[in-house]
Amino acid sequence: MAAVQLLLLACLMWAFEARTAQLRKADDGSGRCQYTFSVASPTEPSCPEQGQAASAIRDLQRDSSAQRADLEATKARLSSLEGLLRRLTEGQAAGSSDGQEGLQGEMDALRRDREQLETQARELEVAYGNLLRDKAALEEEKRQLGQENDDLARRLESSSQEVARLRRGQCPQAHNSSQDAPPGSGEEVPKQNVETANFQELKSELTEVPASRILKESPSGHPENEEEDPGCGELVWVGEPLTLRRAETAAGKYGVWMRDPKPRPPHTAETTWRVDTVGADVRQVFEYDRAAQFLQGRPSRVHVLPRPLESTGAVVYAGSLYFQAAGSATLVRYDLASGTVRAERELPGAGFRGQFPYSWGGYTDIDLAVDETGLWAIYSTRAARGAIVLSRLSPESLAPRRTWQTNIRKRAVANAFLVCGRLYTVSSYASPDAAVNFAYDPATGRTKALRVPLRVRHGYSSALDYNPRERRLFGWDNFHMVAYDVRLSRG
After folding, report:
1. pTM metric for this prediction
2. Are 344 and 396 in contact (CB under 8 A)?
3. Measured over all CA atoms, what is the biggest interatomic distance in the chain, rounded to whole angstroms?
4. pLDDT tens, 86-96?
């Protein structure tokens, strides 16, 4: 047993401390095998006694037991830590899910608050726009009342003069006595002859104006020429833009508004149509029976087109809405009274979807226009290499009656319109110093450079169309619907 213990001691010492060991066995002479070994100790100069070896073995056993206890304790702590880590991980996962739900709830609440604020902002913007329109309407009424007051004052003064003249005519004796009064008597000499002369001059002024030259009043209050005397000529002046109203939503940044120069029942020359053209599927056309409804933003009817329209090139003429179908070179005639499509026709070779737009973009490849001579299409083709092509269209079938190719690059101008059979282009869509810069006459095939100022008040003009009945340009300038008076030369 002692040999085994010594062997164990040797092995332990060799495993933990010894660097070299020697083991020997020999017969002790009595028939037993004797094992001897020697271990080099780093601290002890000689081998310990048997008692010391036993003590060392006991110490090693205690150390081994202590180490096993420490190992078990370490295992227990490690297991505890693993359990704690597992519970912590699960708790974090659950907490993360709860946190995500809480965060999502907060984001939803913030989104609802933002939508409410945006709704309030839009309502305030609409209210502000309504106030501006009401203010403009009141100012216009004030101006009209002032004019009526001035007219009444002039009529009253004229009536007073006429009454005084009649009274003097009924009292010749008083006039004669006054004429017979001696100088210096203090009585005023009558001015019957002078007043009579003034009256005769007034009558001559009234009779000098021939009836054929009298201008009729349009529903908008602007003069227009009689049909038998259209007074066509070259565009020589464009007035300051008059802002009529502002679009309520972001869809109204670009758009077009129109009136029919040749209205058909049930519509009148006062009926107004409007289209907001921001969006991929533009189908709504707002109709306003009265000009006041248009100014107040209260449509009387909303048309939903069977096909979406493209950009701002639509016009109203002779009871129909004419527009370019989105994503194609097809023109559509939509009857506004019945709400049905009466004609469709592809414009031969016309570019579409951004091939030949105006300089401001907006898929303005095909721009329809109306003037004193009828319905037109302004566009370009590959054959024309981007130059403006002008076609006179049949209002019934939309077939081109005649076509001209100009030398004006379509991308080089911001917009175009027709007046009295001549094509006019605009230099810029954003500059406040924009101008009508070119005129093309199909009758002669000649292009003329012009410099007729046309102010862009609100910074982004996306539509400009001429109304021959009112002799005005209707424009859409960065959410705002504006109108320009124009003047033409005679002949």
Report:
1. 0.56
2. no
3. 197
4. 777 776 666 55
